[in-house]
């Protein structure tokens, strides 16, 4: 590779890795496996090593991704949360052993632990009481998710025995497979998108704004790293055993090893045995036991030199790619699906596998008739992760990605920030039409039980419905001539459609199927804006004020209501008698705060942030998100953002606490 080629490739790799970082850490929805991701990073590292001039300060090789979410208060870690160097090979482990021996001439011990596949967390305890739980974030600072973490049953809120006055303990939050399956079943019933694997479900759950929802999701935890100034022992293993006595969940499967051979035996044993565990593990972490020797070995910029992660390869099989189909979902997203020669993989026969999107097909250079590598990780649907090119013959055919919708022929679109193509013909494309109606009638939406998927398709094929509003024009007489619909079921259908008119507004809002507006988001919007008219008129800024609503959702809502066809459907639903506003609209209490705008920041003891904002509105005030010279007050709670406080001081905006706010409205 010459310099120019290396430059182009490294720039492309950087963009690609950044995008996958975002999908993994922010959207909690990775598009490629860890193995593929590591390959990309390793390729970039190799180029940067060969051509040091091409290394940039912001290269993804210089930092790990970030899971920071703007809706949480950010906390700086006392000790940075580093990641681990990782490997998939025994050779690398032997190299690791040699490196250790060069520095640590004395006897040393390894500690082997399972690598739990979840989200890392750092817990701070003072005087035996849980103070704070912070995510890894970018390693330097993470999100304060204490309220959510408190709901995890095996995380002790109070300790027993002889614990140090102050310390941190780190570990992994994960979702056991049984909880994951239950959650996805519920989501499938509600017509919501499924989580791809327990890890993503964990990431999504930890970032929920409502901790009572978190409590229901059955998260679990193991702790694996104790940090602090006054730890009981000068070795990792013994410290963990002590922490167990204070009440922490510490894995039973930690082993001390004297040689790298014993480490490899541990890995070989667990590479099979792990499948029997009720939760996912993706490798083994190997650490030096003595904390003194750990200090001697030290850290690189990114990871400790005294530990390494050996990652298990996901189960794979090789088979022939016969053809590629395209599926169009209710939102119009197009997913390529591979048809495979049936192959046995992890106990099931696999005939179809996901190909994600066009870019993925291009990167992997997948062609029809290729022998492809199919992988079953934690995901429900197996996916294709590569091609074995040694099998490639003259009959492999390059594949042209479709340009038009396979269902309705409309030209596909692709937004720059999205990996998937979309069919924009939302009101004229079969799977989108029936998919939207199916979503509308589903249990967590309008709960119209008399209808099912087959009946929806039957009604559509007989030109009786083509959108959700048509349901409310249906007459019993129109149903009777249809095959499979007898008098009694026709009556039931009409009755349950009629009953659905009483469904509360927040569910109507969820049911109409605005892209990215799930059940919880719909509830938040309804609580805040109270009626469809207010939502239709809301500006992007107003929408962004609502908890859990970011740019992407706000944009989607605005686009939905800008569409004339959608407006007509809403009007017809309104005329049919559906609930288009919340029952109890927020009652005005006074005009004391009229003309004043407030910024609320931090956490409070008397109110939740949302309650506080509601009180401001009920007294005629206005909530804004950013401080400006025209802001009347910054109400600062505990852990209120430092930048906000500084800005308020600079602009001479008054800073008050919740008690002073109470005085203001009670004056
Ligand atoms: S030790 C400085 N032990 O794997 C050492 N990590 O990149 C800190 N993980 O971010 C990590 N199981 O989220 C350690 N038994 C274990 C682990 C473990 C899972 C995760 C952790 C970390 C990543 C390594």
Secondary structure layout:
Elements: H1 3-26, H2 34-50, E1 74-76, E2 86-87, H3 90-103, E3 110-116, E4 119-126, E5 129-135, E6 141-143, H4 146-149, E7 166-174, H5 177-189, H6 198-206, H7 211-216, E8 220-227, H8 236-246, E9 255-257, H9 260-273, E10 281-288, H10 291-297, E11 307-311, E12 315-328, E13 334-345, E14 348-354, H11 358-364, E15 371-376, E16 383-387, H12 430-441, H13 453-461, H14 476-479, H15 487-499, H16 505-511, H17 519-529, H18 532-537, H19 540-544, H20 551-562, H21 564-576, E17 597-601, H22 609-618, E18 622-623, E19 633-636, H23 642-650, E20 654-656, H24 658-666
Parallel strand pairs: 2-11, 17-18, 17-19, 19-20
Antiparallel strand pairs: 1-6, 3-9, 3-10, 4-5, 4-7, 7-8, 10-11, 12-13, 12-15, 13-14, 15-16
The structure holds 2-(butylsulfanyl)adenosine (IVH).
Label this structure with key terms:
667 residues, OB fold (Dihydrolipoamide Acetyltransferase, E2P), binds 2-(butylsulfanyl)adenosine, 6 domains, 5-stranded antiparallel sheet, alpha+beta, 37% helix, Helix Hairpins, D-amino Acid Aminotransferase, Chain A, domain 1
The radius of gyration over CA amounts to 28 Å
Q: List each distinct ligand once.
A: 2-(butylsulfanyl)adenosine
H/I helix tally: 24
Number of domains: 6
Low-confidence stretches: none
Helix proportion = 25-40%
Give the name of the CATH superfamily of the largest domain. DNA ligase/mRNA capping enzyme
Number-wise, the strands total 20
Look at the structure and give the mean pLDDT: 89
Content-based structural category: alpha+beta
Oligomer: single chain
Give the name of the CATH architecture of the largest domain: 2-Layer Sandwich
The 3D shape can be described as globular
Q: Assess the beta-strand content as a share of residues.
A: 15-25%
- Strand order in the sheet with the most strands: 2-11-10-3-9
Largest sheet: 5 strands, mixed
The CATH class label of the largest domain is: Alpha Beta
Q: Give the CATH topology of the largest domain.
A: D-amino Acid Aminotransferase, Chain A, domain 1
């Amino acid at each position: 590779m010459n310099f120019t080629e290396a430059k182009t490739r490294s720039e492309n790799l950087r963009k690609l890795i950044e995008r996958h970082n975002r999908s993994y850490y922010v959207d909690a929805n990775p598009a490629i496996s860890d193995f593929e991701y590591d390959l990309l990073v390793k390729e970039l590292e190799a180029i940067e090593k060969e051509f040091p001039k091409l290394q940039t300060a912001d290269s993804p090789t210089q930092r790990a991704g970030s899971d920071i979410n703007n809706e949480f208060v950010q906390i700086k870690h006392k000790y940075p949360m580093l990641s681990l160097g990782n490997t998939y090979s025994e050779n690398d482990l032997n190299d690791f052993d040699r490196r250790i021996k060069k520095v640590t001439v004395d006897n040393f011990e390894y500690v082997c632990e399972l690598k739990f596949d979840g989200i890392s967390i750092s817990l701070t305890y003072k005087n035996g009481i849980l103070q704070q739980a912070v995510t890894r974030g970018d390693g330097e600072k993470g999100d304060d998710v204490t309220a959510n973490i408190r709901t995890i049953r095996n995380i002790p809120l109070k300790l027993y025995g002889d614990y140090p006055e102050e310390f941190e303990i780190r570990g992994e939050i994960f979702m056991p497979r049984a909880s994951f399956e239950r959650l996805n079943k519920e989501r499938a019933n509600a017509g919501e998108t499924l989580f791809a694997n327990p890890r993503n479900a964990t990431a999504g759950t930890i970032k929920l704004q409502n901790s009572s929802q978190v409590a229901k999701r059955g998260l679990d935890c193991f702790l694996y790293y104790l940090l602090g100034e006054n730890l009981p022992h000068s070795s990792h293993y013994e410290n963990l055993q002590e922490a167990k006595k204070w009440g922490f969940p510490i894995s039973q499967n930690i082993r001390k090893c004297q040689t790298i051979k014993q480490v490899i035996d541990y890995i070989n044993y667990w590479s099979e045995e792990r499948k029997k565990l009720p939760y996912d593990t993706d490798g083994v972490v190997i650490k030096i036991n003595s904390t003194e020797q750990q200090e001697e070995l030290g850290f690189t910029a990114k990871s400790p030199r005294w530990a390494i992660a050996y990652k298990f390869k996901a189960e794979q099989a090789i088979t022939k790619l016969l053809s590629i189909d395209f599926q169009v979902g209710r939102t119009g997203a197009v997913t390529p699906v591979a048809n495979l020669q049936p192959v046995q993989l992890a106990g099931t026969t696999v005939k179809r596998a996901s190909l994600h999107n066009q870019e993925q097909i291009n990167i992997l250079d997948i062609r029809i008739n290729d022998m492809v590598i199919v992988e079953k990780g934690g995901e429900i649907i197996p996916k294709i992760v590569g091609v074995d090119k040694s099998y490639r013959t003259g009959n492999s055919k390059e594949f042209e990605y479709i340009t038009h919708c396979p269902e309705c022929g409309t030209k596909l679109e692709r937004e720059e920030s999205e990996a998937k193509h979309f069919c924009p013909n939302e009101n004229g494309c079969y799977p989108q039409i029936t998919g939207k109606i199916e979503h509308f009638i589903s249990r967590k939406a309008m709960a119209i039980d008399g209808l099912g998927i087959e009946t929806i398709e039957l009604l559509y094929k007989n030109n009786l419905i083509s959108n959700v509003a048509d349901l409310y024009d249906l007459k019993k007489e129109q149903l009777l001539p249809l095959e499979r619909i007898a008098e009694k079921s026709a009556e039931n259908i009409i009755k349950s459609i009629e009953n659905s008119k009483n469904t509360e507004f927040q569910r109507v809002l969820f049911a109409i199927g605005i892209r990215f507006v799930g059940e919880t988001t719909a509830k938040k919007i309804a609580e805040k804006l109270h009626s469809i008219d207010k939502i239709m008129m809301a500006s992007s800024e107003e929408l962004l004020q609502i908890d859990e609503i970011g740019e992407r959702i706000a944009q989607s809502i605005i686009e939905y209501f800008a569409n004339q066809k959608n407006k007509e459907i809403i009007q017809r639903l309104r005329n049919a008698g559906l609930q288009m506003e919340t029952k109890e609209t927020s009652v005005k209490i006074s005009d004391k705060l009229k003309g004043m705008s407030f910024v609320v920041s931090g956490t409070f003891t008397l109110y939740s942030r949302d309650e506080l904002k509601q009180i401001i509105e009920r007294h005629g005030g206005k909530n804004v998100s950013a401080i400006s010279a025209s802001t009347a007050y910054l109400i600062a709670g505990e852990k209120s953002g430092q930048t906000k406080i500084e800005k308020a001081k600079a602009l001479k905006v008054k800073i008050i606490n919740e008690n002073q706010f109470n005085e203001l409205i009670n004056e």
